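step 3/5: co-fold with zinc ion
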Amino acid sequence: MPRLASLLADGSGDILVSLQFALDEQRLRTVSGSARGTVTQTCQRCLEPVAVEVEANVNLAMVLNEEQAKNLPRYYDPLIVEAEDVELLSLIEDELILSLPLVAYHDDCSIQTSFGDADEAARTQETKPNPFSVLAELKQKADKS
Ligand SMILES: [Zn+2]
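step 4/5: write tokens
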């Protein structure tokens, strides 16, 4: 979903799509189901990544042209099938894009900031020499002398 991905902070996140294809009582070919997942956008307050839930629900009926589309029961959206091409994926992508918040931000950016501090503490610890490697060094020196 390149158009959706272009609106995100990175390409991480999965979208779970579940679709049901059926023939309804009016003999209409229908596609119904949902797509949902969590993607990452940039928080517009602190500019850190923020997880955003996206969701799309579809209730479509396949039609061959605009005329048939107009005659569909109102609870269906038309899925116009031209030749062999069905733009189902891009239609779901559109719905997911519409479900993105206009502006993404954390409920509380200070919580995010404290996570950042924890990360920094972890990094500082990593750069400290490992006490065992110091011992190993001492042992090496002792062996040499
Ligand atoms: Zn934030």
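step 5/5: annotate
Residues 118 and 124 are 10 Å apart (CA to CA).
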